[in-house]
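REQUEST ID: PR-0412
SUBMITTED BY: lab tech R.K.
PRIORITY: routine
TASK: structure prediction, single protein chain
INPUT:
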Amino acid sequence: MLKWLAAVSAMALASGCATLPPPAQVSPGAAPAPTPSYDLLIRGGTIYDGSGGAPYIGDVGISGDRIVYAGPPQEASAPRLVDARGLAVAPGFINMLSWATESLLVDPRGLSDLRQGITLEVMGEGWSMGPLTDKMKALAVKQQGDVKFPIEWTTLGDYLNFVERKGTSLNIASFVGATTVRQHVLGEGDVDPNPAQLDRMRGLVRQAMEEGAMGVGSSLIYPPSSFAETDELVALVSEAGKCGGMYISHMRSEGDRLVESVDELIKIARRSGAPAEIYHLKQAGRANWGKLDAVIARVEAARAAGLRITANMYTYTAGGTGVAASMPPWVQDGGTEAMLKRLKDPAVVARIKREMGKPGTSWENLYFHAGPDGIRLAGVVEPSLKPLIGKTIAEIAQARGVTPEQVVIDLTLADQGRAGAIYFLMNEDNVRRQTAIPWVSFGSDAEASAPEGVFLKSSTHPRAYGNFARFLGKYVRDEKTAPLADAIRRLTSLPATNLGLSDRGKLAPGMAADVVLFDPATIADHATFDKPMQYATGVRDVFVNGVQVLKGGEPTGATPGRFVKGAGWTGWPDGGACSKRQVQ
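STATUS: complete
OUTPUT:
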């Protein structure tokens, strides 16, 4: 042990890490302190504790599912010792925008994220896996893509408990979707709720918060959520805010009306009393690339005024969404079946094509901003369409001898509204600048899959396999857009604090033992738009709730992941934030 302590002390001096405090002095005649004992001891790594402070060479002791020691090297015993010399030791990373909702049901390992150090998947961008009506369940089963599964739950809490019982290598959490709540009460039409209906919607939000939801998530470019007025959103978010939750939003526009949409998000935060976060901060379309300064100014002014406004991002210049999103939202008024019926009407199709060809004055025209050369087909369910995956809308149009607009309509009809695409919309300089913003965390906006089995039936976006490694490798190490200690803070304690999680996001006694060991010198993404299903490298070991789920870069198959609950959960010892607000 003395040789070990000498070795790690030498490493600390050589690496330039923070100076360690001197060993505690024992008074003459005093009995020596007993040697600490842990279940697991991670020794000699460079500790990045998640606070953003200077790293240091030290040890992390774990007993059960908790960290009980994080500090300088010490004499201690444990049946399991992990040599972390030469590696960064950090809290597990938090994915603030996960679509692992379905992928974890068929593959609980979540390998595309696990191999990047993710230990917590946060779901609920507009749509959540509950609450559901019987009609919503039937519709969801009918619209399933390559991944198929029975729906054996009704509420959001039911789903999250179901995944935990079934087994998952990663922790899970979710916002309740504003879209899901709206659909539950109002269906999929362009209608406004009456007072009684709005009360029912608020009640569904409160129920989800009491079950452990993190807050309300919206996705306002997609019907039927795009039909929601600001007042409706304020009402739902106010209910979450009373329970200690937050608001998080794919805003109404990320392009032509980007600044106005940021203003709406800030207004919702101010009126509801809840913190708010922007999903996947971006400036979509060349005409909007110059708006980043205005967005930063709006957010920082709101923060200076006392509002907690944050954002998350992915590290790519292309987004991904449905092919149907290329058409104006009114096409989907009433749901998928109504849309498919409209697409068979020549007069309606002519109108759609006209609107696709010009900027959307009241909707997000992704087709116009990306152009048919900038939209690449990524996923379809219909087998006859599979050979088209990877081709652009322009290429398909040329091969078929039709207009690109007609291709969008034909693909939507042929795949029953399920076709997905990658849209090239953003600017690399802006992506790089955003990686340095201190109030920005990170989200993949993707499933957690593996290059095997059912996942090979379609392609995906490289962000599913490389988002976090790309941030740490390309941007932090190679381009030096942020110090590594602060980068780790923005992957750990920043999102944990935003979510109100008091026991995640830092390496400190009493915290949940979610820990990642990686090599800052080699961590890298390998996924590309042409070959997206390539694992990141550089993460060696991952522990979730004290159990090793990645060892030497390979999954162990363990499933210790848990449903991580928000402040409103009624199972907390004090009854949760919802009950406390009710008493007041």
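NOTES: The first helix runs from residue 2 to 15.
REVIEWED BY: pending
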